[in-house]
Amino acid sequence: MPTPVCATELKPSSFEDYRILTDFAILTFSGWANAAVQKFASTLRTLLIFLNMLDNTIGKIAFLHIPKTAGVSVIDAFVQRLGAESCQAFSSEISEDVFSKKTFVSGHVYLGDIQCDPFIFTFVRNPLEQIASHLMWVDHYNQPEYEIELNGFPEKIRQEIRRVASVDLSSAKSIDKYFESRSHDSEIRLINLQSELLVFKRGHVTEMTHRDLASKAINNLNRFGFVGISEDLSAEMKTLFEMLNLGASPVISHLNSSPSSRKVDTSVHDIQRTLLKYVQADLRLYEHVMAEKKSSLKTNRNIFSIMQSFARKYTRA
Questions:
Q1: Residue 78's closest CA among 90, 66, 67?
Q2: SS3 of residue 43 by DSSP
Q3: Which of 58, 78, 105 is the last residue of a domain?
Q4: 76 and 16, same structural domain?
Q5: Which helix (H) or strand (E) holds 124?
Q6: H-run or E-run covering 302
Q7: C-alpha count within 13 angstroms, C-beta hemisphere, residue 306
Q8: Are 246 and 269 members of one domain?
Q9: In CATH, what number is assigned to the domain containing residue 264?
């Protein structure tokens, strides 16, 4: 466990410093496990993020892009605002080296592999819809018109993609058999992927219960400056752009929907029940984020609005 540090000794110069300061305050009150303290901690984090924004020290923006959570639409908004030359999409890493050339970097990366200290944000999605969409996305590579793209993958990934072609996506029994037969070290990650990306490093994924995985993912949310909900994309992007002092967010386009000719119908009860078996950790994570949004988002938005008005008034003075 790191050596405790006195809050007055911290001299924030990056978003990471503000996060540490916030965590110090939360730990200080951790013995008071009640709703009031949690609300205080959430508000304090919001205040510190805003102070960092005013200090213009958030020069680096990292988007941990969880597959099939409207990430391409998020990237497109940043490209529109910052310019393509300042953005790196689908990066294999989020590091100081990449940030030496770019302001905004996104990638399907594990949180444990982000060692620099940018402003990190992500989006989560209803787990049933996310895993269904991801499965359909994998399946679309089996269509003849995508053969060239399929052949561009390493052999092991091609084999995993071809396995999906034999799954009857309209059958809960067939889907269940497919997930049951997947090995833990599969190259294509599908089960509880949202939680997994928030907990591990690439190549270091270990088996654990759904409850433990969700608990670790929820604990790691304190590394994020913002966690959005894909189902409320336009409003969430508006809040995010305000936080980053980027002005009004561009019109959000809904891009990169699955081109699969076969569908996983999550409205079918048996399919819904089957998929739920494989996203229990993600469901806990998603419900936690939703609950936090309901309890604090309105308050935090009001705080931002007040502070932004204050900042505009006194920066003109």
A1: 90
A2: helix
A3: 58
A4: no
A5: strand 119-124
A6: helix 298-316
A7: 8
A8: yes
A9: 3.40.50
